[in-house]
Structures are given as structure tokens and as C-alpha cells.
Amino acid sequence: MGASGLLVVFPFLMAYAASSDLLTMTIPNWISLALISGFAIVATFSGLGWAEIGWHVGAAALTLCVTFALFARGLIGGGDAKLAAATTLWLGAGNMLDYLLVASVLGGGLTLGLLTARSHPLPSLLVRLPFAVHLHDRTTGVPYGIALAVAGLVVVPQTVLWSDLLGL
């Protein structure tokens, strides 16, 4: 389960979170719970020691504290906060800052792109797509889960967990 969890379950959940946020502007709680459960299973089969697991859990807890502070200030959504923490659980303390930096850069680009798109009329072809109309609405937030998910996929190959499971 270890390698398949990392190579199949983690990317699937990241892609689902991103697409869900794009289409509905929500990230269901079950995604974060599945990431947490999946990590517990992968950690068991990967041979991570208790200390290493503790560092992963600590990084996730710290990320949750920071992202919930951002949520409390209305800067990100609650689903984004939970997704960032659950993703950090997989990436660990050693990759937490890389993940948050990549997510910030991608999120900034996404935000600028969306603001630019919203300053122009929605193309007539997209008017028939409810998610596009909702996404184009200036009062709607930014589906930041896209940046969080892509950042997780970009950073995960750099993790010790990845190297250990794939024998690199």
C-alpha cells in the first residue's frame, strides 16, 4: 500500500480537491480526512519511525494553526486551511516551507489571473457553464485549493517519504 498510496491515492485526492474547488468553490471535508487516513496507512507500511511521524504531525499541526488564523481573518477558506494541513502531513516538516512557498507563488498567479479575467466580459461560450459564471463573479473568492493541490504534487517528489517508498 505504501508506494501505491503515494503514487495513486495522494495525486487522486489532490486532483479531486483542485477540481472540486474549481467547480464548486468548496473542498469537501472527506478529502482532508482521506488524506489523513491515507498518510496513516502509508506511514505504517513505509517504515517511518515514531519520531519522523511526529515531525509530519507537528508540521501539519503548525500549518493548521497558521491557515486557520488566515481563515479567521477571512483570507482563505476553511477547506483550504484543512487541505493545506492534510497535505503538509504527507510532505513533512522538511518540505513544509517549500510547499507553502510554491502554494503562495501559484496562488498569487492564480489570483492575478482570475482578477484579470474578471476585468473582462465572460466569453459567450462560457456563459452556459454555471461554474464559469460563478468563478467570473467579482464577489466570489479564489479557488485557492487549486494552488494548494498543485503545490503538493510539485513538492511530494522531493520528500523523504517519496524516496523511501520508491527506493531512490
TrEMBL record:
Topology in membrane: Multi-pass membrane protein
Gene3D superfamilies associated with the record: 1.20.120.1220
Keyword Membrane carried by entry: yes
UniProt source species: Methylobacterium thuringiense
InterPro entries for the chain: Preflagellin_Peptidase (IPR052218), Prepilin_IV_endopep_pep (IPR000045)
Segments passing through the bilayer: 27-50, 57-76, 96-115, 142-162
Annotated keywords: Cell membrane, Membrane, Transmembrane, Transmembrane helix
Keyword match Transmembrane helix: yes
Lineage: Bacteria, Pseudomonadati, Pseudomonadota, Alphaproteobacteria, Hyphomicrobiales
Domain of life, per lineage: Bacteria
Localization: Cell membrane
Protein name as it appears in the record: Prepilin type IV endopeptidase peptidase domain-containing protein
Occurrences of domain Prepilin type IV endopeptidase peptidase (ranges): 9-111
A Pfam family this chain is assigned to: Peptidase_A24
Main location group: membrane
Signal peptide: none
